[in-house]
Amino acid sequence: MSGSEPMRLVGTSWDEDGNDVAQSVLTGENMKVRALCLTTPEVVVPILFVPGIMGTRLKVIGRDKGAAWFPPDSTWDAIVLLLKHLIRTSADRQRLLNPDLTEVDED
């Protein structure tokens, strides 16, 4: 098959365990039709965009050294930030970035 053959979409459904299931038919070699089966992704990666703060340094209100969010300045800073956030739970990160408890760090 060269990739220029007609294509048909194969419908999918889910079984009782939540797995994707698709059924198709076999055709003879003289029928050059591709079948496309779309499935759900194995892993979902949530991405959170917070407008206005991605490049703004934030600190916990009332603390001089209470960094809530400092965007990385270098590759090393990015690695350190990643490692710090990997050990935090999503609830910890949500508490840390609470808009009622953070302010812009002017330093």
Main β-sheet, in a few words? 3 strands, antiparallel
Within the largest sheet, what's the order of strands? 6-5-7
Fraction in beta strands = 15-25%
What are the low-pLDDT stretches, counting only 5+ consecutive residues below 50?
Answer: none
- Write the element-wise H/E pattern from the N-terminal end onward: EEEEEEHHE
Percentage of residues assigned to helices? 10-25%
Q: Work out the count of structural domains.
A: 2
Query: Helix- and strand-based class?
Result: alpha+beta
Number of alpha- plus pi-helical segments: 2
What is the CA-based Rg, rounded?
Answer: 25 Å
DSSP summary, beta strand count: 7
**Euclidean distance between termini CA atoms:** 62 Å
Q: What is the residue-mean pLDDT, rounded to a whole number?
A: 81
Tertiary shape? elongated
Short summary:
By secondary structure, the protein is an alpha+beta fold. The protein has 2 domains: 7-37, no CATH class; 58-104, no CATH class. The strands form 3 sheets. The chain has a 3-stranded antiparallel β-sheet, with no helix packed on it. Strands 1-4 form a two-stranded parallel sheet.
Structural notes for this entry:
- This protein is α+β, with helices and mostly antiparallel strands.
- The protein has two domains: 7-37, no CATH class; 58-104, no CATH class.
- It has helices spanning 75-86, 90-96, and strands at residues 7-10, 12-14, 20-22, 34-37, 58-60, 67-69, 102-104.
- The strands form three sheets. The chain has a three-stranded antiparallel β-sheet, with no helix packed on it. The protein has a two-stranded parallel ribbon with strand order 1-4. Strands 2-3 form a two-stranded antiparallel sheet.
